[in-house]
């Protein structure tokens, strides 16, 4: 089923759209945003996927980050999906802020209770990228990057590294880098995947990075030194390898909020534009 337009707003030299569609992956209605710069007929543009953090919808990034000015400047399409299924109620999915609604963790759940709907990994990597978004935006599938914040930074790192043929550039703001060792990650991964921790590693950025042997990547990570969640994020667990160069910047006095994200948003667009436009 085609996506239905919810809203359209002029922003800089482009338009900010919001769409709703019936997802075959999450088995419910989903909402996503997409910013499309002005372009010529039949012109394909490089594209970024942005994955948001815990409690967020598609709208937090759209309304708080100020990204549109940079997307307009660099002429990059930006897709920003929701963080979990919303159009379905699973028992217990609203009991806590860090699991269930608003906390899909970009995994494909295997625990029976969650497996039907909580498939945010496939939703981003397959359904949105390959099927839904190309019908509403002129994306150049050969020039796609991915970035995100916190839980979404975890998603960006794991998805980007596990799918190097689809995502050519990667960055993250305050990502959850080693979820198998911290409370946020342990709660989510055990809840969605069960108790066999060997199945968790595919969704742990530090573990995926160790095993990565694909095309060389330069990964930008920004982290605030005053972030109250530093113990959950563990950016020091990311280790540079032969195949991945890490640029990890600790930003003095900045916290976990969109004040932090918006301050360094321009740097991340520069990072992605340089890589994608060179392809």
UniProtKB/TrEMBL annotation:
<dbReference type="GO" id="GO:0005829">
    <property type="term" value="C:cytosol"/>
</dbReference>
<feature type="active site" description="Charge relay system">
    <location>
        <position position="256"/>
    </location>
</feature>
<keyword id="KW-0378">Hydrolase</keyword>
<dbReference type="GO" id="GO:0052689">
    <property type="term" value="F:carboxylic ester hydrolase activity"/>
</dbReference>
<keyword id="KW-0719">Serine esterase</keyword>
<dbReference type="InterPro" id="IPR029058">
    <property type="entry name" value="AB_hydrolase_fold"/>
</dbReference>
<dbReference type="InterPro" id="IPR000801">
    <property type="entry name" value="Esterase-like"/>
</dbReference>
<dbReference type="GO" id="GO:0046294">
    <property type="term" value="P:formaldehyde catabolic process"/>
</dbReference>
<comment type="function">
    <text>Serine hydrolase involved in the detoxification of formaldehyde.</text>
</comment>
<protein>
    <recommendedName>
        <fullName>S-formylglutathione hydrolase</fullName>
        <ecNumber>3.1.2.12</ecNumber>
    </recommendedName>
</protein>
<dbReference type="Pfam" id="PF00756">
    <property type="entry name" value="Esterase"/>
</dbReference>
<comment type="similarity">
    <text>Belongs to the esterase D family.</text>
</comment>
<feature type="active site" description="Charge relay system">
    <location>
        <position position="227"/>
    </location>
</feature>
<dbReference type="GO" id="GO:0018738">
    <property type="term" value="F:S-formylglutathione hydrolase activity"/>
</dbReference>
<keyword id="KW-0963">Cytoplasm</keyword>
<feature type="active site" description="Charge relay system">
    <location>
        <position position="150"/>
    </location>
</feature>
<dbReference type="InterPro" id="IPR014186">
    <property type="entry name" value="S-formylglutathione_hydrol"/>
</dbReference>
């Amino acid at each position: 089923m085609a996506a239905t337009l919810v809203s359209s707003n002029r922003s800089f030299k482009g338009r900010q759209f919001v769409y709703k569609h019936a997802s075959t992956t999450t088995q419910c209605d989903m909402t996503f945003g997409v910013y499309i710069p002005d372009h010529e007929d039949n012109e394909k543009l490089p594209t970024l996927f942005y994955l948001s953090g815990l409690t967020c919808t598609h709208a937090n990034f759209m309304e708080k980050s100020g990204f549109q000015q940079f997307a307009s400047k660099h002429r990059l399409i930006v897709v920003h999906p929701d963080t979990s299924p919303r159009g379905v109620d699973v028992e217990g999915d609203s009991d806590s802020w860090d699991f269930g609604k608003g906390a899909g963790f970009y995994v494909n759940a295997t625990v029976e209770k969650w497996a039907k709907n909580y498939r945010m990994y496939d939703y981003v990597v397959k359904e949105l990228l390959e099927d839904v978004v190309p019908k509403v935006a002129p994306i150049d599938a050969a020039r796609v990057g991915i970035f995100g914040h916190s839980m979404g930074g975890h998603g960006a790192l794991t998805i980007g590294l596990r799918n190097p043929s689809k995502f050519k550039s990667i960055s993250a703001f305050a990502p959850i880098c080693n979820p198998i060792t911290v409370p946020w990650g342990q709660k989510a991964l055990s809840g969605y995947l069960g108790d066999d921790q060997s199945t968790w590693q595919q969704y742990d950025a530090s573990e995926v990075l160790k095993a990565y042997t694909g095309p060389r990547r330069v990964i930008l990570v920004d982290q605030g030194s005053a972030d109250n969640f530093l113990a959950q994020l563990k950016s020091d667990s990311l280790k540079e390898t032969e195949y991945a160069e890490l640029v990890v910047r600790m930003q003095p006095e900045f916290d976990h909020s969109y004040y932090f994200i918006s301050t360094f948003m321009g740097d991340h667009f520069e990072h992605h534009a340089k890589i994608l436009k060179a392809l």
